[in-house]
Specification:
Elements (H helix, E strand, L loop, with lengths): L2 H12 L3 H40 L3 H4 L3 E3 L6 H4 E4 L10 H10 L9 H13 L5 H7 L3 H9 L2 H15 L5 H37 L7
Antiparallel strand pairs: 1-2
Helix pairs in contact: 1-2, 2-5, 2-10, 6-9
C-alpha cells in the first residue's frame, strides 16, 4: 500500500499529523496520474462539449457560435453542438503542468501549513486555465487575458483550489473534472450577463447624450 510507507516516513517529522499529510501526498500523486491518463486520451473534447452545452442552455449561443456550428433543431443543448470550426480546447494540457504539480507536492511535508500552501499555490496557477476556452471564444490577446485574470485573481485562485480538492477525491475525480467544466461555464454566463447589461446601459446613455429636442 502506497500510504503506509509515506505515513511511516512523515511520522518522523510530523508525529500525529503524518496521516493527514501523507493522505494528501498519495491523493496528489493519484491526481497527477489521472490527469496524465484521462486528459491525455479523451477528456478535453468532452470538457469542451460540457462547457459549450452549458453556455448554449444559459443563453450564450452567440458566444459558442463563434467557434462551432450549432443546430437549433438539435433538441437539448448537447445535441445542438456541431463540429468546431477551428481547434477547440477546454484547457491546454502539457507535461509542464504535471511536472509543476509534482514539484509542489513536497510542500505537504511541511507540518500544518504545507498542505494548504500546496493547494493554494496549485489553485493559483490552475484557476485561470479553466477559462482558457472562454478567452479563446472572446479572441482575447495575451495582454487582455492577463488583465482580465488579474482583476479577478482571488476568485480564480479560490476556484482553482476547490477544483483541485475535488479532483483529489478517489474514484470521483474524473466525474468532478466534468462538473468543474460545467461550473466554469456557469461563471462565464455571469460574466456575459454583466457584460451585456453594461452594453445596454452604455447604449442607453449614448442615446440620451445624443438626443436633442426639435424646436416647434
Amino acid at each position: 500500500m502506497a500510504l503506509s510507507p509515506q505515513v511511516a516516513f512523515l511520522a518522523i517529522f510530523h508525529g500525529h499529523l503524518a496521516w493527514l499529510n501523507a493522505t494528501f501526498l498519495v491523493l496528489g500523486e493519484g491526481a497527477a496520474i489521472v490527469a496524465l491518463l484521462f486528459e491525455a486520451f479523451f477528456v478535453d473534447e468532452t470538457l469542451v462539449d460540457v462547457f459549450d452545452s452549458v453556455l448554449v442552455k444559459e443563453g450564450c449561443r452567440d458566444l459558442v457560435a463563434t467557434s462551432r456550428i450549432l443546430d437549433p433543431d438539435g433538441g437539448n443543448p448537447l445535441k445542438q453542438l456541431g463540429k468546431p470550426t477551428y481547434s477547440a480546447v477546454y484547457s491546454p494540457f502539457s507535461f509542464r503542468q504535471i511536472l509543476e504539480f509534482i514539484i509542489f507536492l513536497p510542500l505537504n511535508l511541511i507540518p500544518i501549513v504545507g498542505t494548504p500552501m500546496f493547494l493554494i499555490i496549485t489553485g493559483y496557477r490552475a484557476g485561470p486555465l479553466h477559462h482558457w476556452r472562454y478567452f479563446k471564444l472572446l479572441d482575447l490577446t495575451k495582454k487582455e487575458k492577463n488583465r482580465f485574470v488579474k482583476q479577478r485573481q482571488l476568485k480564480y485562485t479560490w476556484f482553482g483550489t476547490m477544483a483541485l480538492l475535488l479532483q483529489l477525491i478517489p474514484v470521483l475525480s474524473m466525474l468532478f473534472l466534468l462538473t468543474t467544466a460545467a461550473g466554469s461555464a456557469l461563471w462565464v454566463v455571469r460574466f456575459e450577463n454583466q457584460r451585456k447589461a453594461l452594453e445596454v446601459d452604455q447604449d442607453a446613455r449614448d442615446g440620451r447624450d445624443g438626443y436633442v429636442d426639435d424646436p416647434v
